Fold this protein.
Amino acid sequence: MSEAAAKPTLAVWKFSSCDGCQLSILDLEEELLDIVGAVEIAYFPEMTRAVVKGPYDVSLVEGSVTTPEEAERIAEIRENSKILITLGACAVAGGIQALRNFDGADAHAWVPTVYAHPEYISTLSTSTAISDHIDIQGSVQGCPPNKYHLLELIGSLVWGRTPNLPTHSQCLDCKVKGNVCVLVAHGTPCLGPVTRAGCGSVCPSYHRGCYGCHGPAETPNMDALTTRWRSLGVAEDDIVRGRRMFYAWDPGFVGPGEEHHKQPAAETTRGQGSI
Ligand code: SF4
Ligand code: SF4
């Protein structure tokens, strides 16, 4: 905690992302007053223009590292933060923008196609997780995270305890909810067996397969699930597309035979330079 302040200081930072994780904090609405009563919002541009200078007791980071500037900025934030937690698929695993990391993808080639003035674009060839660049103290999964998981995180930091967040797979929650399994009963491809619980099993509750937006459970077995999907007759291309979504670059969602896609963290940005 900050020696000068009675309340711990909280900073919320944005990197390459859609802002959804920050909006999940703001979506707490009724609980926000309790939060600002317990912590000092020191830096959170999406909530307030007021800025308190660091160092900060806690930094929450949304987004992945996709530019040389971001690679430098996250190191500065690390220096200025006692505790640093990553929020969401982009910060935890590189996000859907990490599709650029796979073999055959070429971010350099896309830039002139996407931007009218590519000369203004300075980007790395990869999108990488915050933990590929600095040490972190923890993370909250989800695209976006469940807002009550964020509340649990902030509360646990205030009270100095470990946050109680789910690590098990969707299937357990699905059974508790009494859902009919779409994979077993209907032959619908579902990523639930490898995906972290926490959304309330929304998709199977509406008779569709989970597509993994909460990221991998603690012990995902993608090899076994791939074998199961093959037994349903799912085409190989569709199996690959199925797992290359929000957590495409997460080791938990790398499929059989794809291990070579995951390079050592430092190599994913070092030497890549900018374009
Ligand atoms: S529907 Fe999906 S998440 Fe639910 S039990 Fe079946 S495989 Fe698991
Ligand atoms: S995709 Fe999976 S994790 Fe995401 S909301 Fe649907 S069931 Fe939940």
Notes: Confidence is low (pLDDT under 50) at residues 264-275. Residues 170-171, 174, 179, 181-183, 190, 192-193, 204, 210 surround iron/sulfur cluster (ligand 1) (CB under 6 Å). The radius of gyration is 20 Å.
